[in-house]
């Protein structure tokens, strides 16, 4: 999904939403890879630091994406009907990406909680 991030639509809030969603998705993938390594015994200070920073960045990007979602929808109102198709695809990408990252973040939290026990 992240290999096909929609291009700019010309709707600033929608483009910001797509970018924040894609950033959150990219960080979620990277964090899942790091977390997998930690669960397999690759626990080094560098790994823990990278995971901590990555999870913080993922959280911030997800919060930004969630905050921008209503603005992205609002930005579609009054849009030229000829541009609505591209904008709808971008909105769908942002919505799907945000949903997946939210689910992945919950899973990552569960894994970390189990590791700490």
| Oligomeric composition of the shown chains | single chain
Strand elements, count: 0
The assigned structural class equals mainly alpha
Q: Provide the residue-averaged pLDDT.
A: 90
The percent range for helix content is over 70%
Major sheet, described briefly?
none
Number of domains: 1
Distance between the termini: 34 Å
Low-confidence stretches: none
Describe the structure.
- This protein has 117 residues and is mostly helical.
- The protein has one domain (11-111).
- It has helices spanning 12-39, 45-76, 84-116.
- The longest helix is centred in the C-terminal third of the chain and has 33 residues, at 84-116.
List keywords for this structure.
mainly alpha
Short overview:
This protein has 117 residues and is an all-alpha fold. The protein has helices at residues 12-39, 45-76, 84-116.
SSE layout and pairings?
Blueprint: H1 12-39, H2 45-76, H3 84-116
């Amino acid at each position: 999904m992240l290999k096909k991030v929609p291009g700019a639509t010309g709707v600033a809030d929608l483009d910001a939403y797509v970018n924040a969603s894609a950033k959150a998705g990219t960080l979620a993938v990277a964090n899942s890879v790091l977390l997998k390594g930690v669960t397999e015994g690759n626990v080094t200070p560098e790994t823990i630091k990278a995971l901590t920073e990555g999870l913080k960045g993922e959280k911030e990007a997800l919060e930004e994406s969630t905050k921008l979602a209503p603005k992205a929808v609002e930005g579609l109102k009054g849009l030229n009907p000829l541009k609505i198709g591209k904008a709808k695809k971008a909105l769908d990408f942002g919505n799907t990406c945000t949903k997946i990252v939210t689910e992945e973040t919950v899973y990552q939290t569960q894994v970390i909680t189990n590791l700490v026990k």
